[in-house]
Write a structure and sequence with these properties.
mainly beta; Elongation Factor Tu (Ef-tu), domain 3; SH3 type barrels; 6-stranded antiparallel beta sheet; 6-stranded mixed beta sheet; 2 helices; 5% helix; elongated; disordered N terminus
Length: 191
Amino acid sequence: MPSKRAPRRPASRPLPEPSPGFVAVGWVGAPRGRRGELTIEPLTDFPQRFQPDAIVWAGGASYTVRHVRQHRRALLLELDGVETPEQAEKLRGLLLEVPDEELGALGEHQYFRFQLLGMAVVDRDGQPLGQIEEVLDTGANDVYIVRSPEGELLIPAIDTIVKQVDVAGKRMVVELIAGLQHRPYTRPPTD
């Protein structure tokens, strides 16, 4: 019997870009129930961002979290001002965002995912490998999708591979091991 999973955004459709000055912390999926609950795919390692009385932004408007609960791999959120499934449906596909000045400090060797996107990746000899276009959460460790004209390279975010990350300089140094090589990449069809 197949396992039940939370509704996910289609893999062929990338997330929208966050608003200038904001950072995405969640993606709004389908409405649930009759009270306007939203199914949320968290995009943050800090679930406290969704606690009651927290403020999140969607579509240029701010909302106060009224209630949150875990549902399989997703969160179910109730927001002030979103009382019906029809109101919730208007938020489907939008990002939940917070102002970037609300980001807390991270420890050494920790980064926000948005800081890695667009980062140049080079090998230990300084040879360019491409840019980080996407970060996948695999459960065990993140995987950086690095794309270049030569194709796509999947870099596991582990210390034996990622040797240096310079956030300010937007540059990552990696050590390529056997099996890590570019593969052809074709963009998925869009509507």
